[in-house]
Each structure stands twice: as C-alpha cells, then as structure tokens.
Write a structure and sequence with these properties.
By secondary structure, the protein is an alpha+beta fold. Helix content is about 25%, strand content about 25%. It has three helices and seven strands. β6 and β7 form a beta hairpin. The chain is globular and about 45 Å long. The structure holds zinc ion. Zinc ion (ZN) binds next to α2.
C-alpha cells in the first residue's frame, strides 16, 4: 500500500467530470486500498479519486474513522438515485485544508454504485452518511463543496483561500 498525494483546490482535476470505471481488476483494487490508507492517514471520512489526481468515478468513505469495519465503503461509478429532507452542518474537504463551512444538503440519500469486483449495491444513508455520499459523489461529477455554499459563504471561503495561498499555507 502507498499514500497518495492529495491535490488542493483549484487543481483542474477537481473540476473535471470523472470517467466511468470499466475494468475491475487488481489495479483498481490496489488503488482503492491506497485511497483508504490515504484517507485514514489524512483523518478524513471520505476521499474521491479526483482528489488524488485521478479523473475516475471512484470514492471511499468511512464515517467511523476506521472504528467500524461495516462503515468502510468503496463506491465505483456512484450515482445518487434518491434523496429526501434537508440538513445543515459544518463540512470540510481534504482538498480544502482547514476550511469548515456550513453546508445544506439532503438528510437522506440512496446511493447506487459498484464494489471493487463490479457488483452493484445500494446504500441508504442518513445524516453524516448521506452528507458524505453526496459530497463524494459530487467530486466524481467535478463539483466541489464550494459550489454548494451560499454565495456569501463562498466569497468568504474564496477570500480565506487567497489569504492562505499568499502565506504559502495552501498549495
Ligand atoms: Zn471533498
């Protein structure tokens, strides 16, 4: 296993729609293992392939932070097929280090995706699980959480990023 390098906004790959995965082989499995390792190392609860500069529709998540094996999910070619309700809460992203902004998302989301072997599955998640599924599926569509902020919060976030860039705390 290897740690992958996480790219920060505004890397173009973060703003690109991911290509579907067609080959479910050993290479994909080891890439997904590396993504899990990278996510745990960075203390994140989700990581999408574009965040490690790979423009494919793949994400991993674990809302338990490695405490509960059943929360460990790898989603290949994910799509959100159903949503319900609304929740607002602070959200972060490993490609926006140090930035936590309240974001309104659906309270419940049903995900349809393939596992590393290519088998389709559905995941019905609420609260943090739904938030994570929606955030990571967005990454696969070239959408970052900045795009989900209110206009005011987005302008404030952009200003903060500029400040951090100037002081070299953001690459
Ligand atoms: Zn993110």
């Amino acid at each position: 296993m290897a740690l992958l390098e996480i790219v920060n906004y505004p890397a173009p790959v973060l703003l690109t729609v991911g290509k579907p995965v067609e080959h479910f082989d050993d290479r994909l499995e080891s890439f997904v293992e590396d993504m899990f390792e990278t996510m745990y190392h960075a203390k994140g609860v989700g990581l999408a392939a574009p965040q490690v500069a790979v423009a494919n529709r793949i994400f991993v998540m674990d809302c338990s932070g490695g405490e509960d094996e059943s929360q460990r999910i790898a989603a290949i070619n994910p799509e959100v097929i159903c949503t319900e309700g609304e929740q607002t809460g602070d959200e972060g992203c490993l490609s926006f280090p140090g930035l936590y902004v309240p974001i309104t998302r659906h309270q419940r989301a049903i995900l349809r995706a393939q596992d590393v072997k290519g088998n389709w599955f559905e995941l019905d998640g609420e609260d943090l699980t739904a938030r994570c599924v929606l955030h990571e599926t967005d990454h696969c569509d070239g959408i970052v959480f900045l795009d989900r902020m209110t206009i005011l919060k987005r302008e404030m976030a952009k200003r903060k990023i500029k400040r951090l860039q100037k002081t070299g705390k953001w690459d």
